[in-house]
Design goal:
Layout (H helix, E strand, L loop, with lengths): L4 E5 L6 H12 L2 E4 H14 L7 H7 L5 E3 L5 E3 L2 E2 L7 H10 L3 H15 L4 E5 L2 H5 L5 E6 L2 H14 L6 H17 L12 E4 L5 H23 L1
Parallel strand pairs: 1-6, 1-7, 2-6, 7-8
Antiparallel strand pairs: 3-4, 4-5
Bound molecules: 2'-deoxycytidine-5'-monophosphate (DC).
2'-deoxycytidine-5'-monophosphate (DC) binds next to helix 2, helix 4 and helix 8.
C-alpha cells in the first residue's frame, strides 16, 4: 500500500507526540520526534557547560551531537539513552533557545529530511509543514488552549510522581509559545495548507480518528492522481 508523509506542527504540550505515536502504530509508519533532536542539542551543550547564549560555540560543537531515534521511541545521544533526561524543564527551555540558531536548524532539518526521504513517516515539531517537508501530503496544525495544555502537563507530572505548580507550567508554556513563534528563523506557523485541529475538548481517540480519516482521504486522492 502507498504511504504518505505526515507533518504535525503546533505549540508545545498540544499533544502532538501522543497523537503521532498512536498514528505511527496504527499505520505502520515511522515516527520522527524532531523536538527530541533540538532537546539533544541543548542537553549535550548543557552537559559540556556551554552557555546556551553562545551561538558560536554551539555551532562549533554541533557535529559532536550524534542523535538516533529508535523505533521504540528511545532517544540515543552519542549511543547513550537520554529519552527521559531530555524532558527536564531546563532542557525544554534550552531546546527552544538553540532552536533559534540558524546553524542548528540547518543541521537538524537536513537530518530530518534524510530520515523522511522514503515516506511512510510522521514528523512532529514546529516547522515540519512549512520548512522540513513542504510537500507532505498531510499537514496537521494541532492546538489546544493554554489551560488545557498546562493541565495535561500537570497531570503527566503527577503520574510520574513529580510535584509541580500549575501556574508556573502555564507561564512556561506561554513563554515558549512566544519564543517559538517570534524567532527570526522558521518560527512556529500554521502552513497555509495545514488542517487545524483544536484538541482542547477532544479525547486522544477522537483526535486519532479525525487524522486517520484525513490520511485515508489523502491516500485516495493520491491513488486517483496516479491513475
Ligand atoms: O516539541 P518539543 O516540546 O519537544 O520541542 C522542544 C523545543 O524544540 C521547542 O520549544 C522548540 C524546538 N523545536 C523547534 O524549534 N522545531 C521543531 N521542529 C521541533 C522543536
Amino acid at each position: 500500500m502507498k504511504k504518505i508523509s505526515i507533518a504535525i506542527d503546533g505549540p508545545s504540550a498540544a499533544g502532538k507526540s501522543t497523537i503521532a505515536k498512536q498514528l505511527a502504530k496504527i499505520l505502520g509508519y515511522t515516527y520522527i520526534d524532531t523536538g527530541a533532536m533540538y532537546r539533544c542539542v541543548a542537553y549535550y551543550m548543557i552537559q559540556k557547560d556551554i552557555d546556551l547564549n553562545d551561538e558560536v560555540s554551539i555551532e562549533r560543537y554541533l557535529n559532536e551531537v550524534g542523535i538516533e531515534l529508535l523505533p521504540d521511541n528511545t532517544v540515543l545521544l552519542n549511543q547513550q539513552v537520554v529519552t527521559d533526561k531530555i524532558r527536564s524543564d531546563e532542557v525544554s527551555k534550552g531546546a527552544s533557545k538553540v532552536g533559534a540558531y540558524g546553524a542548528v536548524r540547518h543541521h537538524l532539518v537536513a537530518l530530518q529530511r534524510k530520515m523522511a526521504e522514503n515516506g511512510g513517516v510522521i514528523l512532529d515539531g514546529r516547522d515540519i509543514g512549512s520548512v522540513v517537508l513542504p510537500n507532505a501530503q498531510l499537514k496537521i496544525y494541532q492546538v489546544a488552549s493554554v489551560e488545557t495544555r498546562a493541565m495535561r502537563r500537570y497531570k503527566e507530572n503527577l503520574e510520574r510522581g513529580i510535584e509541580s505548580d500549575l501556574e508556573k507550567i502555564k507561564a512556561d508554556i506561554e513563554q515558549r509559545d512566544y519564543d517559538d513563534s517570534h524567532r527570526a528563523i522558521s518560527p512556529l506557523v500554521k502552513a497555509k495548507d495545514a488542517v487545524e485541529i483544536d484538541t482542547s475538548e477532544m479525547t486522544i481517540d477522537e483526535v486519532v480518528e479525525t487524522v486517520i480519516k484525513l490520511v485515508n482521504e489523502r491516500l485516495e486522492e493520491n491513488t486517483c492522481q496516479e491513475q
